[in-house]
């Protein structure tokens, strides 16, 4: 059996890549992908620990998270399309009508 | 072993009486989207405003059903109905009712009435109702997201306006980011229990007993959940989306976002920190104190230099969240929940009132900037008086209802020993009086920018009732304060019981 610390390390790395991507990348689509990475890092934890304990609670949770991720992407892509129609690009640096 | 569908059916038929209000909202919203809108009531675009009335009827029915729901715990100990649930559910539904009442004129003027707008409000409300009763991190997470997805769309609802889309985009990206943090925190806590449970009551027992090598897991999990929830209530330093989202959203949605989702998120706060992490208070008290103080200070100070009334109210709502977190910090969960509820009730009334006035002025192409309030005391004496009352109440000046809420909350915090925080709260309240009174000064002591020959457009009846009722409540509310206090004393905000959550064994083990 894989050591649980290894699972935690991998999932933390995945999550950190996601966080770094959200903070560094400026393209709205790439930011969306990085958010998915963060969710999947959590899924990895949920499934690994549920498997270790022999329960299905965590696995059901992970399935629901995947469903939610799809819904979130649907809303996110709709917003990206609306933004693209209005602005002609999807760089988050260039949305700056609101400030103060 | 029963099949999956049989198990689902058994659970549902056993516990369905806890969620009739949610079912009503969801079924009604779905029916509105499909057969009703396209076949049975094919109203033209100009007639879509008729949807407001059925929506209001559904929300009022939901309010009735909510009050009639029996107390108890259901759905494998994932959803619980008790005083906290019902109290905050009522606030959420009231907030949604007010938002629908205010939407009429704005959407009419923009020719943007669609059935989806009302459907999203209903679905978002059902998410909030689930949030109030969620006692498992699974239900907490998904109900928060059900609410948030609806709000993202509503913020970007005016899709022909760059500002609205931009607000929606910013809110969405930060909201999705925060939900990633929240979920990762939940998964760490789940890992710390050894992959057994996400139930708050059980987490509370198990997390306090974990071995030393798992302390880091628990600590970072609790902090990440705290960060994720702070994003949802817009507490400093996780508030940066709030002013932009409030500013760009359609104004009725701004009024809604400032009240109903806040009430639901605070219910989650109370539930998670006072039930789930109660034994871990050493881990989260200090960070939450810092967040609360920072929200009060930054919210109030940043509001001073705002030119737009919507941004001003956004920053002031950040400050009000800072005050309400004092109630979450209280070690006496019962009194804390009561104080937060009373504060939220007064905040709901006075904030909605203030937004109603802003929305009325916006219908005439002004009201966005604070300068637009110049000379309002002469042009609309009654409206200006109502706005004066709402602003004074937001500032917490006695004898208005805002003072009552603040007084009770601060009193509780002093009793609990958070004297420093209360001193900060009092000082920043004084700061807040400055910027609220600045608007009052514009209304009464400045001449109007243009000579007032403009037509005095009649207000739509909903908004007129709403402003009148809110104003009356704000003025006479304090008189009923003692009764309200006595009445809420009798509510058992947290039912203490610890039935076992279901743990499903894997067949192979």
Task: Give the SSE layout.
The complex is a heterodimer of chains A (100) and B (509).
Chain A: H1 4-24, H2 28-53, H3 57-87
Helix pairs in contact in A: 1-2, 2-3
Chain B: H1 4-15, H2 20-40, H3 52-68, E1 72-74, E2 79-81, H4 83-110, H5 115-133, H6 137-155, H7 162-192, H8 200-207, H9 215-233, H10 241-248, H11 251-276, H12 281-304, H13 309-329, H14 333-362, H15 376-379, H16 381-395, H17 401-415, H18 419-445, H19 461-476, H20 481-489
Antiparallel strand pairs in B: 1-2
Number of H- or I-type helical stretches of chain A: 3
Assembly category:
heterodimer
Number of domains of chain B: 1
CATH class of chain A: Mainly Alpha
What order do the SSEs of chain B take from the amino end to the carboxyl end, as H and E? HHHEEHHHHHHHHHHHHHHHHH
Global geometry of chain B: globular
Q: Stretches of chain B where pLDDT falls below 50 for ≥5 residues?
A: none
What is the arithmetic mean of pLDDT of chain B?
88
Can you offer a commentary on this structure?
The complex is a heterodimer of chains A (100) and B (509). Helices cover 78% and strands 0% of the residues of chain A. The N and C termini of chain A lie far apart (54 Å). Chain A is mostly helical and 100 residues long. In chain A, helix 1 (4-24) runs antiparallel to helix 2 (28-53) and helix 2 (28-53) packs antiparallel against helix 3 (57-87). The mean pLDDT of chain A is 91. Chain A has a single domain, classed as Helix Hairpins, CATH 1.10.287. The longest helix of chain A has 31 residues, at 57-87. The radius of gyration of chain A is 17 Å and the shape is elongated. Chain A has helices at residues 4-24, 28-53, 57-87. Chain B is mostly helical. Chain B has one domain (12-489). Chain B contains 20 helices and 2 strands. In chain B, a hairpin with a 4-residue loop joins strand 1 (72-74) and strand 2 (79-81). In chain B, helix 13 packs antiparallel against helix 14 (333-362). The longest helix of chain B is centred in the middle third of the chain and has 31 residues, at 162-192. The two termini of chain B are 14 Å apart. At the A-B interface, helix 1, helix 2 and helix 3 of A face helix 6, helix 7 and helix 10 of B.
